[in-house]
Every structure is written in C-alpha cells, then in structure tokens.
Amino acid sequence: MPQLIGHRAVAAGAILAAALLAAGCASNPASSTGSGSGSSASASTGSDPKSLVPADIKSKGTLIVATDASYAPNEFFDTDGKTIIGMDADLAQALGQELGLKVTVQNVTFDSIIAGLAANKYDLGMSSFTDTKEREKTVDFVTYFSAGSSLMVKAGNPEGLKPNDVSLCGKTIAVEKGTIQESTDVPADTKTCTAAGKPAVKDLSFDDQNGANLALDSGRADGVLADSPVAAYAAKQSNGKFVITGQPYGTAPYGIAIPKGNGMAPAVLAALKVLMTNGSYTQILTKWGIQDGAITNPVIDGATS
C-alpha cells in the first residue's frame, strides 16, 4: 500500500511512517504494460464511459472509493491531516469526471477493502492493489500501473540486507497487513532460508504502512518491504535515514478493485482509456514522480499469477 508527509503530517515519526507503502505491492511477474490474460471488454477507446455506468450507480450519482491513506505518493494525507492526496486520489477524481459521477474517497484499513467491496460497501478500491488471481476470485480489477517490491533499510545498511537473499534469514522485516509483501514475499524468503538450514524471516505486520516505517525507524525492524514507488519515495523523504538496498523485484500490475460482476469494470476501463488518450493519466503520474510505472494497455482482470 507508500513517505514523506505520511499518514498525518503531525510528528516526524508519522511522516517517516507514511513515507512507505504497502498496499498492493507486487510479487507477481507481469509485463510493464500491465497487459495480461485479461479482457478489454466492451470498453474500446471510442466507448463513452458514461454510457457504460450501471443504472444503479448512475442513479446514485456518487462513487465511494476506499483507500488506505498511509503510503505516499500513491495515497496519503495532506498536511491538514484530513485531505487524501496522491496518485490514486487524483486518478479517482479524474475517472469520476469521465464517468459523470461525484467521487468520495474514504480512508480505511487496507486489509478491509476487498471484503468491503464484496459487501457492496464501496464502489471502487484504489489503494495500490496488486492484481492477483486469488484476489480476482472476489473482485474484478482494471489494471492501471506497474510496480514491484523493494527493501528499505536504515542508512548504511547496518545488517547488510539484500532482497530475496539469505541475508534476511533470522531478521525482522516489517510489512503492512494484507499486502503481497506479507502474503507472498516474506513467506518466499522464509522458504529460501529454511531450505538453506537458516532461521526463518521474522514477519512484523502492521495495520498500516506508517506502523511498518516507524518500526524501522525505532529499531524494532531490520528492514521494510513495500511497493517499489512507495519505498523509493519514503527513502527520498527520510532526510537520509532510510535507503533502498538492491533492485525492485516481482513487477506486477496494480488494479482498481471493483465488486465482482457488478458491471462497473467496463465503464472504469473506458474512462481510464480516455485519460490515457487525453494525457491526463501521464500528467497525474508525472506530478507524483512515478511515471516509470505507466502502462499502455489496461485490461480487466489481467493477473498472471
């Protein structure tokens, strides 16, 4: 799910905390274009997004978008501690404009979003979700970005840690609950360690990314695993306290999560294609310094693993 003015720009610790990410995270291989085995549905570039919005949502007139505002630059609180800003927040508003719907962004815990979508509590989930086949059993996704996982450590890397390496064995790695880092990355590292006869990686999970970042800052954790754009942003905004060690890995598509089969995915896909065509998509990513994660071929349910 992202480091600078973190969760709430109150204390320096909170700022460092928010500096990292966690949500979707990535550990599933996929192309940088975000295209997978997914469907383009009826949302061709020429489709009118407004005409594809299901009647029940159109009559409501509002899109409720759930996010975990604890990882900049994708989604985090502005300095007022109330306004949610970031790439996903800007993109949500732009999509709403193309769909003819007002957008309300709600801050919730990351690991509650998919369940909330399944219960029709929210209309969209935009919180750096990695599109995975497991998640596609519960929700639909429209791919819109590409990211991997990165390992963040204290300056100087005192423990000599490297991603996907036996140097992690026996070390404490902080992650956010519900992320790919928690469900896939740490277990994979532990498997490598035990196969080598070394102690397992110690998983220290938090309800939001701020907690994971603070654990590294306080010394409770030896490293933090998070999505690559969030980790990079956190390190950059930490005034030299944090650095990224090694290279990002496990590149996979982010997806906008939508209640399964409710008919909204084609409309979102069509709206996203409009934003890509008119330049708004590129402008939003460039604003937050994450244009390297741009894709060119969004699809519905594009997970490869």
Which helices and strands appear, and what pairs or packs with what?
Blueprint: H1 12-18, H2 49-52, H3 55-60, E1 62-67, E2 70-71, E3 75-77, E4 84-85, H4 87-99, E5 102-107, H5 113-118, E6 124-125, H6 133-136, E7 139-154, E8 172-176, H7 180-195, E9 202-206, H8 209-218, E10 223-227, H9 228-236, E11 242-259, H10 265-278, H11 280-287
Parallel strand pairs: 1-5, 1-6, 8-9, 8-10
Antiparallel strand pairs: 2-3, 3-4, 7-10, 7-11
Helix pairs in contact: 1-8, 4-10, 4-11
Relevant terms:
3-stranded parallel sheet; globular; 32% helix; disordered N terminus; Solute-binding_3/MltF_N; 305 residues; alpha/beta; D-Maltodextrin-Binding Protein, domain 2; single chain; 5-stranded mixed sheet; 2 domains
Describe the structure.
It is built from 11 helices and 11 strands. The protein is an alpha/beta fold. It folds into 2 domains: 180 residues, 3-Layer(aba) Sandwich (D-Maltodextrin-Binding Protein, domain 2); 101 residues, Periplasmic binding protein-like II (D-Maltodextrin-Binding Protein, domain 2, 3-Layer(aba) Sandwich). The strands form 3 sheets. A 5-stranded mixed sheet has the order 9-8-10-7-11, with helices on both faces. Strands 5-1-6 form a 3-stranded parallel sheet. A 3-stranded antiparallel sheet has the order 2-3-4, covered by helices on one side. The N terminus is likely disordered. One of its GO terms (molecular function) is ligand-gated monoatomic ion channel activity. This is ABC transporter substrate-binding protein.
